[in-house]
Amino acid sequence: MTGARKHPGYFWLAFEWSNLVSTCFDCNKIGKGKGNRFPLLGGEANRLSTPPLSQNGSGLDVNELRPDHPQLSKERPYLLHPEFDIPEICFAFDNEGLMSGIDAEGRGKETIKICNLNRKNLKYRRQKALEFFVIPIRNAMQAFDAGGFDNNQLLLFLKFTFQRFEDWGQPKEEYSLFGKFAFENFSSLVLTLLPKGYRAVIEEAFRRFQLGQL
Predict the structure, then answer these.
(1) Which of 22, 27, 148, 178 is deepest in the core (most CB within 10 A)?
(2) pLDDT, position 42
(3) Which DSSP symbol is given to 181?
């Protein structure tokens, strides 16, 4: 393990479901991704080096294999666990797809660093995912100005687009955390990408959508 050469590795967690987390190749690879890195907030003094045994010593204490149970939670890893931690309170994004860590402990920042979550291609793809919603909104406003949409058609199109935008934040969607953040920070992330002359109309339509009045 990187930074803990004498550690035998968490071999007792090899078949623990809560320890099996799907990752892409680039996030997990040695060198530019996570690899064998697993740094702890309190340093090596907090690292568990032997498996938790049952009280009678007959085998593993299977109740202590989950990261939210006392034995492992005492380690306080920097790396966020997507099933047990709350990523929403640890990350923020800008409208170019750049991630930043925002939690006081620095876990978001370190997770970004460990998994290289701001690598060029990933940042680009997040940006393009946001543009997938921004460009149609801009085009609809231009069509409205040119007489291609009437008022009702424009509002119907915006309602459809806002609904798809909100759905982007569902966990099954690609870049869903970015989608959720962008939807919740619509004014600062999305409106700023639109021509100034369109912003007031779009902002009001979005407000009405959130109230269920669009």
Answers:
(1) 178
(2) 83
(3) H
Cβ atoms within 10 Å, residue 98: 14
Instruction: Give the separation between CA 199 and CA 188, rounded to whole angstroms.
Output: 11
Residue 27: closest CA among 148, 113, 99, 137: 113
| Paired tokens of 208 | 């009405």
**pTM of structure:** 0.90
**Amino acid identity of 24?**
C
Give the pair of three-digit tokens for residue 168: 């982007």
> What amino acid occupies position 28?
N
Instruction: For residue range 32-58, list pLDDT tens digits in order.
Output: 888 889 999 988 888 988 888 888 777
DSSP states along 128-173: HHHHHHHHHHHHHHHHHHTTSS-HHHHHHHHHHHHHHHHHTTSTTS
> Letter for the amino acid at 5?
R
- Residue 113: exposed, middle, or buried by beta-carbon count in 10 A (0-12, 13-18, 19+)? middle
- Please answer whether residues 110 and 39 qualify as being in contact, where contact means their C-beta atoms are separated by less than 8 angstroms: yes
